């Protein structure tokens, strides 16, 4: 899959010309098809693995209403549980399913309840209802204690009818148990953490009273009223977060004594297997110095500073510790310290036993380990940044071996059986609909359980192709997704560049439609050549590939997008005089940045929820990539769009949700004000009730607005 420059394009352009002589029949997509089709009429009917039931059978679902049981032996899946049997589950879908740690029951989570089903035939079933006004639900599978939050406090439900009050903070500026801490950076998605035995509950406690209240406006009230959020902006005072532990036996709460700056980030929260210690990564506000610590769960005191990680740009801890089965003194740590995300084996005193994986590729997910604690299974990009293959590493020797064939390009994921003998593995690629396999880990033999059919295969619509470019540095390969209309000899087509470009995102992958959506096909049907490129700064290519963006967001990203476009222009059917760009969030920032920094290149832009000046963005993300405005005034000045508005030549539409608490509306409103002062005409469209993106039924309205604007100004102009 490796390629240089635009060799794929120039070497294969004749293929596009040949396509123009194909039969004229075409299954035209509607806009609603393009927006919703992959989840409705063109949805792939497939079995989704849920969890292993025991060593010889597992559970699957196809419609999130019915759970099937499948044996490792031949046979059709059998209905194991169906929501249709429960009138109280009407219109509810299955959110998740997991096997309890003792293997005695499966925990099915629906919208308003948990249903615990015994793994033994005709075993009991138990229902645990979620309190109607609760959130952040976290069920301990053995004690069946349910931790949750109501507003800003933490509670525990015991025996379905006894509610234990864990915190009683009246001031709404103190928020307990929420996963929305540190703006959900650093891989944080939950704020409640049960100890393995269920005797203790750790939780985040966030004091944000020192953060200035930021006003959003609720216009649906009879008289518009402010809706205040706490939004710490780069360089300003940030929230202060603590970790606390509630002890069920005594009702006592312990605070973890980090003895650090109160604005320190606390992440990678992990309980020791015996529940006596809590591990936490402490990251300074500058995000360039990490210390992994172990704390005593009973007293909250520091038991050990295990190791440190430092980097001149930033350190980004995102993963909890993974303890080795049967060897509770050993754990696996994920780190980018050698330039790529890899696995490291440590003991509980912080001694490095060995680096388990290494090379110019990334570990993506840890899938599991065998009961003996010998093999650890993971997915990685070893073959290509576009692919995901399954591997295992021997913890004692560090020897790795592939489980899935590296000759088959595509994307694998998997779930390991409790005894470690089998993997329930899913596979898909750009040319292969999702398939479900059973893989024997010792022999690597894979047996097909179910092959899905892609309804798009029979449709004569434009399909994306993989293209490669050389980045602006002259050496790095970039991957792109290109979709073309039905080409007519001698005709040149305008370009529609869909862009994101920021960290933590990879838009081009070896999956269905090369990671794209039917919007690419729809826009090709409207007469556009559609291109998406993952520039330097995007995900899963290593630390150097990403952190080149440090202190000047957008600079290298724009260069790569422009270089890719100019390589695309060499194709005979591409009209370089008609180019549109569209993106949302970081992609909105990129859209306007490209319009203002390369005005001779871009004719039309549609920017959604754009960052327009990084001084208005939040502390955690903003300071990681830009440092503070005080530390990096030149970088903030260079990336601000406000003083570049006079460069605008093309047509620009800015869209923003007025309830946006991620990229606050101030970004767009101040940019519009700058355009007004510069005497430049732009178009602005607000979504009064929507947050950072426009979802649900209004998504069609949004994409109609976007596509109409592009077609009007590039096709019909």
Task: Describe this protein's structure.
- By secondary structure, this protein is of the alpha+beta class.
- The protein has four domains: 7-41 and 455-715, Rossmann fold; 45-129; 163-315, Dipeptidylpeptidase IV, N-terminal domain (Methanol Dehydrogenase, Chain A), CATH 2.140.10; 321-452, 6 Propeller (Neuraminidase), CATH 2.120.10.
- The strands form ten sheets. It has an eight-stranded mixed beta sheet with strand order 36-37-39-38-40-41-42-43, with helices on both faces. Strands 13, 14, 15, 18 and 19 form a five-stranded antiparallel beta sheet that branches. A four-stranded antiparallel beta sheet has the order 1-2-3-4, with no helix packed on it.
- A hairpin with a 6-residue loop joins strand 16 (213-218) and strand 17 (225-230).
- The longest helix has 18 residues, at 698-715.
- Mean pLDDT is 94; it is low at 1-25.
In the CATH scheme, what's the topology name of the largest domain? Rossmann fold
State the end-to-end distance: 39 Å
CATH architecture of the largest domain: 3-Layer(aba) Sandwich
Average pLDDT level: 94
Shape: globular
Domain module tally = 4
Q: Assign the CATH class of the largest domain.
A: Alpha Beta
Total number of helical segments? 10
Tell me about the biggest sheet? Answer: 8 strands, mixed
Strand content: 35-45%
How much is the radius of gyration in Å?
A: 26 Å
Q: What is the number of beta strands?
A: 43
Spatial order of strands in the largest sheet: 36-37-39-38-40-41-42-43
The name of the CATH superfamily of the largest domain reads Alpha/Beta hydrolase fold, catalytic domain
């Amino acid at each position: 899959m490796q390629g240089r420059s635009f060799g794929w394009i120039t070497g294969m352009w004749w293929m596009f010309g040949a396509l123009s002589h194909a039969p004229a029949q075409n299954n035209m997509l509607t806009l609603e098809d393009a927006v919703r089709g992959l989840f409705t009429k063109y949805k792939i009917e497939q079995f989704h693995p849920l969890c292993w039931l025991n060593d010889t059978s597992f559970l699957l679902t196809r419609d999130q209403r019915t759970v099937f049981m499948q044996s490792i032996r031949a046979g059709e899946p059998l209905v194991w549980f169906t929501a249709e049997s429960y009138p109280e589950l009407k219109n509810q879908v299955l959110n998740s399913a997991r096997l309890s740690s003792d293997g005695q029951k499966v925990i099915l989570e629906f919208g308003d309840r948990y249903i615990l089903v015994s793994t033994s035939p005709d075993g009991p079933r138990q229902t645990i209802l979620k309190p109607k006004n609760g959130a952040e639900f976290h069920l301990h599978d053995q004690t069946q204690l349910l931790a949750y939050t109501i507003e800003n406090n933490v509670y525990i439900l015991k025996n379905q009818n006894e509610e234990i009050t864990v915190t009683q903070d009246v001031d709404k500026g103190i928020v307990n148990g929420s996963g929305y801490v540190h703006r959900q950076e650093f891989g944080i998605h939950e704020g409640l953490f049960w100890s393995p035995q269920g005797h203790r509950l750790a939780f985040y406690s966030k004091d944000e009273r020192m953060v200035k209240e930021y006003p959003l406006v609720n216009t649906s009230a009879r008289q518009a009223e402010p809706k205040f959020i706490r939004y710490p902006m780069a360089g300003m005072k940030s929230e202060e977060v603590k970790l606390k532990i509630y002890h069920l036996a005594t009702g006592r709460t312990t605070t973890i004594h980090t003895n650090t700056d109160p604005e320190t980030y606390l992440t990678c929260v992990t309980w020791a297997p015996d529940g006596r210690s809590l591990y936490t990564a402490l990251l300074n506000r500058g995000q360039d110095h990490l210390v992994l610590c172990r704390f005593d769960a009973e007293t909250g005191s520091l038991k050990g500073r295990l190791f440190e990680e430092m980097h001149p740009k930033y350190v980004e801890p995102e993963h909890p510790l993974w303890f080795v089965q049967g060897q509770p003194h050993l754990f696996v740590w994920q780190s980018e310290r050698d330039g790529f995300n890899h696995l490291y084996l440590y003991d509980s005193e912080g001694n490095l036993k060995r680096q388990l994986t290494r090379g110019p590729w990334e570990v993506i997910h840890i899938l599991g380990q065998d009961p003996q604690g010998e093999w650890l299974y993971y997915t990685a990009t070893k073959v290509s940044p576009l692919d995901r293959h399954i591997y295992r590493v021997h913890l004692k020797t560090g020897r790795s071996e592939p489980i899935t064939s590296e000759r088959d390009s595509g994307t694998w994921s998997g779930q390991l059986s409790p005894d470690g003998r089998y993997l329930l593995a899913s596979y898909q690629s750009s040319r292969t609909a999702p398939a479900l396999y059973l893989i024997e880990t010792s022999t690597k033999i894979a047996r097909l359980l179910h092959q899905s059919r892609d309804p798009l295969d029979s449709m004569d619509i434009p399909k994306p192709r993989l293209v490669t470019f050389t980045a602006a540095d002259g050496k790095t390969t970039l991957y792109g997704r290109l979709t073309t209309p039905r080409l007519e000899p001698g005709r040149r087509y305008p370009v529609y560049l869909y862009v994101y470009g920021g960290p933590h995102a990879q838009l081009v992958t070896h999956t269905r439609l090369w990671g794209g959506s039917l919007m690419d096909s729809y826009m090709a049907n409207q007469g556009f050549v559609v291109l998406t490129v993952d520039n330097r700064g995007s995900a899963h290519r290593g630390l150097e590939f990403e952190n080149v963006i440090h202190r000047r967001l957008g600079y290298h990203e724009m260069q790569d997008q422009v270089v890719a476009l100019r390589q695309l222009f060499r194709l005979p059917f591409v009209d370089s005089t008609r180019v549109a760009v569209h993106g949302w969030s970081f992609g909105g920032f990129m859209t306007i940045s490209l319009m203002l920094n390369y005005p001779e290149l871009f004719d039309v832009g549609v920017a959604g929820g754009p960052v327009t000046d990084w001084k208005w963005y939040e502390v955690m993300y903003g300071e990681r990539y830009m440092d503070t405005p005080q530390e990096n005034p030149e970088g903030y000045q260079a990336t601000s769009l406000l003083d570049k508005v006079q460069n605008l030549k093309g047509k620009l539409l800015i869209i923003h949700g007025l309830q946006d608490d991620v990229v606050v509306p101030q970004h767009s409103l101040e940019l519009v004000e700058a355009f007004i002062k510069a005497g430049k005409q732009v178009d602005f469209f607000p979504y009064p009730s929507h947050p950072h993106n426009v979802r649900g039924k209004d998504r069609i309205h949004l994409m109609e607005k976007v596509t109409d604007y592009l077609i009007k100004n590039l096709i019909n102009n």
